[in-house]
Design a protein that fits this description.
single chain; 179 residues; alpha+beta; 3-stranded antiparallel sheet; two-stranded antiparallel sheet; 13% strand
């Protein structure tokens, strides 16, 4: 079924058990980190390293272990969900019809095999995320599929794209003049 939330329409998506497990683990880890941050909010001497150690201890994980990377997966997908899917489509009407190939290198789009405009790229990414058509490899290659249009980012470029997109959402500066 579909559930309308704040003017948005969220629907159920067919996911395999591995994807469901990954989603749940990612959300639990984020919630665990938020719990740790809340518990330490009045501790001005706590360091980031100590917070990381608490998280590693709580979930019995370490950044060097295989499988740790879905922190990054969760962060990117959560960021893109917030930047692309939560606002209505009209929010992006102000995006210029500039070709992706002509965009500032700081946007993380330089290596994309995509011949359309920035507005078109945003629409395809938004649809892909909204409908759950995102695949992530163990090497952190993110593949977004919308009606046969496939856009693939590596994690470094996706990081730059997420940061630049957030910057655009706040400033409407696609040329990254002050980024």
């Amino acid at each position: 079924g579909h559930l309308p939330i704040g003017g948005l329409l969220f629907g159920s998506v067919d996911m395999d058990q591995g994807s469901i497990n990954q989603l749940i683990c990612g959300v639990r880890q984020v919630n665990g980190m938020l719990q740790i941050l809340d518990a330490e909010k009045n501790n001005p001497s706590i360091t980031l390293g100590e917070l990381q150690q608490q998280l590693e201890s709580k979930f019995n994980i370490h950044p060097a272990l295989q499988g740790f990377a879905f922190y990054n997966q969760n962060q990117f997908l959560t960021s893109l969900l917030a930047y692309l899917c939560m606002p209505s489509e009209k929010f992006y009407d102000e995006l210029p019809e500039i070709a992706v190939a002509l965009l500032h290198s700081g946007l993380g789009t330089g290596m994309l095999d995509f011949s359309g405009s920035l507005k078109s790229l945003i629409r395809h990414l938004r649809n892909s995320i909204s409908h759950g058509h995102v695949d992530v490899t163990p090497e952190l290659m993110f593949s977004f599929n919308d009606r046969g249009v496939v856009v693939v980012f590596n994690y470094k470029d996706l990081h730059h794209f997420c940061q630049a997109l957030a910057y655009w959402c706040l400033t409407r500066d696609v040329e990254l003049l002050k980024f």
